[in-house]
Amino acid sequence: MGAMSEGTVSLPWIVIRQDDNGNRYRVGRYATRAEAQKIADSLDDRGHKQLYWVERIGENGDGTQN
């Protein structure tokens, strides 16, 4: 792996999955919203009850934006 830290802003868009118990998982990080949305949509199309959505990582880099 390179020296890129988890806090890098080069991949500011993340796809989040939430299961039936409300647990949230980070599926992946992407450079553009369109790319992240495409992934989220393709996951949604599988027909599972799980929810997928796209978030932009904020300045603090932890991905939470409520």
UniProtKB/TrEMBL annotation:
<dbReference type="InterPro" id="IPR036680">
    <property type="entry name" value="SPOR-like_sf"/>
</dbReference>
<dbReference type="InterPro" id="IPR007730">
    <property type="entry name" value="SPOR-like_dom"/>
</dbReference>
<feature type="domain" description="SPOR">
    <location>
        <begin position="14"/>
        <end position="44"/>
    </location>
</feature>
<protein>
    <recommendedName>
        <fullName>SPOR domain-containing protein</fullName>
    </recommendedName>
</protein>
<dbReference type="GO" id="GO:0042834">
    <property type="term" value="F:peptidoglycan binding"/>
</dbReference>
<dbReference type="Pfam" id="PF05036">
    <property type="entry name" value="SPOR"/>
</dbReference>
